[in-house]
Amino acid sequence: MRAEFKTLASGTVTSPFGFVAGAVQSGIRSPNKLDLAILYSEVPCTAAGMFTTNAIKAAPVVLTQKHLRNKRAQAIVVNSGYANACTGKQGIADAEEMARAVADKLGIAPQNVLVASTGVIGTSLPMDRVRAGIDKVTLTKEGGHELAEAIMTTDTFTKEVALHVEAELGTFILGGVAKGAGMIHPNLATMLCFLTTDATVDATFLQSALHTAADSSFNMVTVDGDTSPSDTVVLLANGLAGTKTINAGNGEVFQKALEEVCLRLAECIATDGEGATKLIKVIVEGAVTEAEARKAARTIASSPLVKSAMHGNDPNWGRVLAALGRSGAKVDEGKLTLYLNSFCVTKKGQPVPFNKQEVSNSLDSKEISLKLELNLGRGKATAWGCDLSEEYVTINSAYTS
Amino acid sequence: MRAEFKTLASGTVTSPFGFVAGAVQSGIRSPNKLDLAILYSEVPCTAAGMFTTNAIKAAPVVLTQKHLRNKRAQAIVVNSGYANACTGKQGIADAEEMARAVADKLGIAPQNVLVASTGVIGTSLPMDRVRAGIDKVTLTKEGGHELAEAIMTTDTFTKEVALHVEAELGTFILGGVAKGAGMIHPNLATMLCFLTTDATVDATFLQSALHTAADSSFNMVTVDGDTSPSDTVVLLANGLAGTKTINAGNGEVFQKALEEVCLRLAECIATDGEGATKLIKVIVEGAVTEAEARKAARTIASSPLVKSAMHGNDPNWGRVLAALGRSGAKVDEGKLTLYLNSFCVTKKGQPVPFNKQEVSNSLDSKEISLKLELNLGRGKATAWGCDLSEEYVTINSAYTS
Question: Does domain B3-271 have CATH number 3.30.360.10?
Fold first, then answer.
């Protein structure tokens, strides 16, 4: 494998060739906020998707899963403000109408339009505003940035990235946008992510590549342990860069590039957790299996007590072990070693004396790491989380009000 | 089954005949706080216990499980301040020494002494203070109240109860104390509970009765989803009331009384969740199985987003369904009905319009209920939780400091 990845300045979901987007302030819920956007590819794409594992699925998720059955798509319409979830039969009808309106506007089949919504659950969409908004959207090459802004809810910054990849089977671009903040959790909780590429990718490989990339990125990001009925990750490949067809046999570079894009978006999501003041990176090594390493890392990163301690720069490492202990991963207390940043606080199960003030000072940082060596096997994983602040509660006790 | 339960005024763990207790300020961690206590029965008891499911177990849990193998015990020694967890070999030696010191003081076998510790994880006990404290404890009939106080950490009130039970096979008293607050979760997270009775109870039945009672009480209480290496529930029966021997064949009244005692302590624990301002009762009916009803109720009661919304009196009912959806319980969205207090907000999957201000006013209360009808089967369960307040974060970002 020989390849070079270059991060594009101002890279976004419309950076790959042939993609355009646009957004408007339709007033769906708040005035003066971009809240409705369309992403469009000049030609039909092979398409892959991953969706919430929540048993309650928002209407747009149900519709988009249906539209993706043929692994083709050409446009995405997305709104923020209301999630169109728990909205009964009206919700399905509204999602269908959004796809139809966009299809009419663009002169494509409704089946080729995917739909996503994020926001408050349980309230129907104001369809008059949605319809008027769809009418008004203008699609441009720079429109990816507007789309990134339009999907924000409690996010405090847009999450966008694009990589330029030079590989043996051709040069291509991979771009993406995401929204995260509250409810981010393993299994794609309340997350929207749209990924695009101008590479030519086999549809079956596209789906498996997306799964693999999501497993080590989005599914390892956790903010509060809650999941949402709306989580959607979609990847469109339009082939306009003219690469050879990428498949399971030659897809190693594409896979790496996709993982890199997903990882960068995932880190943005963790950093922007609701009320977060710092990014917490939890590294677990030496687990019996990789699956157990993932479980352990995610459980620690989502523990409210660990998150609160890190918020206060409190080297209360027992909470890390308590979270580890309930994760379901196999643990031998006499073998485990834990580091808070570079400070070893317990080694092979024996506490190591440390200067509390010194460790606390080191935790007073925008990015900290907790590293556990279980010394049982070769499974390893990294999870990203954020601290739990008073601000999280303030934001979430008045979200619909 | 004919029986009468009477709540004893000022009832506590020493209300049953033959139990005494006492506590001292040993200065284990803070000055001027009762922090070390002993509970003693004049005669050896049949004994049952339930312990943390966390893979990391505190030294006192390891020792107490060992001492309970013969289903006999006569005393319990407990301290707050440090949990003696993640303390390596020294921790086990310290727990053994606590049992030995109490055995010497009381003239009984160390095997008959159970040990429990609660507090900060990862720091060894100051054994000089523990030893001196054990020496100083004076045991009295009123000492249950001191013990209830000595086991408090971030608890804001003592949790004590005793029931006087008149049944066909004799009159007896059941008493108990508990500590809860932070980290309370299904599977007995960071909870200490000591239960006593002067009934004569078969040891095998005692253990099964304790399991059944805990399943519908302590295991349905959740504060923050974290669990602790120290969770311990112990039940001692000394037989001094002279009842007939209670066993699986005739134990219905005892079982009910035990459940009642456990329920009352569990409700106290939920009410006293760290920073809690209200008790949230989650009732799930019509689940496929009782196990699924429990999963659903507990997941909802521990959702940070549900807890934050309830803190702000925000009728954001979509969050309740989102938590339900990730609980693992089978759900048919088109069949489910949800009430916030007495207000139906969604009926058979269709949102029901409601006056937001009116429902919000009703949520502005010390005790609220969320009731879900899944309409799939006959499984039902109730979980107790509390809201998530800014105060929770403040408490937990500076616990060891």
Answer: no
